[in-house]
Write the structure tokens for this entry.
Amino acid sequence: MLTETTKAKGLADLPPVKSDSLLELIALCNADPRPEKIDVGVGVFRDDQGKTPILKVMKEAEQRLLDTQQTKSYLGSAGDKRFTELLRPILLGEHADDDRIAGLQTPGGCGALRLGFELIATVNREARVLVGTPTWPNHPPIIKAVGLSAVEYPYYERGQGAIRFDDMLAALRSAAPGDVALLHGCCHNPTGADLDEEQWRQVRDAVIDRGLIPLVDIAYQGFGRGLEEDAYGVRLMLESCDDVIIAQSCDKNFSCYRDRVGSLWIKTGSKEATATAMAHVFQRAREMWSMPPDHGAAAAHIILEDPALHERWLVELAGMRDRINAVRQRIAAADPRLAFIGRQFGMFSMLPLSKDQVLKLREDHAIYMADSGRFNVVGMSDEQIGRFTTAVVAALNG
Ligand SMILES: Cc1ncc(COP(=O)(O)O)c(C=O)c1O
């Protein structure tokens, strides 16, 4: 007979899980009946009407896909290989022809990050991951899930809207060979504070001096300065380092969030070593999801393959970028204390507000943002911007 102590654990013995604060925020906002509510917590692009439309080129490509797709047979762990080939020049630029770089399609940027860290854990369980804080809240759990440890350093000074670059360099310089430098390629989430080119070069020098492996997470290429400009850090690392890992997402720049379109890229010092690394990557992918979902990447493939659609994608992408930057300028002009927002990039910035002030904005003005003060600059419609800035400035005035 089983005693109390030997009784096997059942599913009912699972401990509670701390819920995701951003998902909680979305639920709270959805439940708020006030029609004037402003949701700047969610991380998706919204247009001047406050909508997240499907890109016109995406709709057209999806129609073509529907009309022409002959089979839904398996594609294999690499996913749509032609899609990855078409991404090469966009992401890798002048390194597109380097045969030491290989990529595969993944389920979004999340899948790419998970797979990249799995590869690190496969080669070196002792490697630590240097993470500048604040960072995207899903980075630490992904690192932990593969059994690696994260070493956090302060990346950003919230009140000043500035990068704590000396702290960043000091942290990288004190890391051990083989440790991983997790870097945001562009449009830093949650701060919007991107490294400038000189800072990227200094980071590159520290990475080389200490023998670190850069893992660049680039989820917003084209949302900051431009498609080419936003890839500066990725390409600098490729130019300078033997081992580089890039986790890429198309979910934002093709506005196909739920379709889960991304890719992982591996560079080593030789074509042969890259082939071996990719064999491990395929093995890990096979264990986790076997192969990525096809639909979004198949549609992106059609867009990138067709010169006319490709061109129209660039125009629609520029439209999203222009709106992000125009809203940034409007918010920045509202008060000198918000001027830093006009110098930052991508969808997110952090307001120098306390948790109580954030809660008060929620209660008094139905403005929903993360407790940290992180907000999505294009979470609101054009019409809501004035009310948002007035409420935020009043909160800053205390
Ligand atoms: C910094 C960063 N990396 C990766 C991702 C993952 O993107 P995806 O939705 O493609 O998984 C996100 C999404 O919000 C992000 O902000």
About this structure: The chain has a mean pLDDT of 96. The CA atoms of residues 122 and 280 lie 8 Å apart.
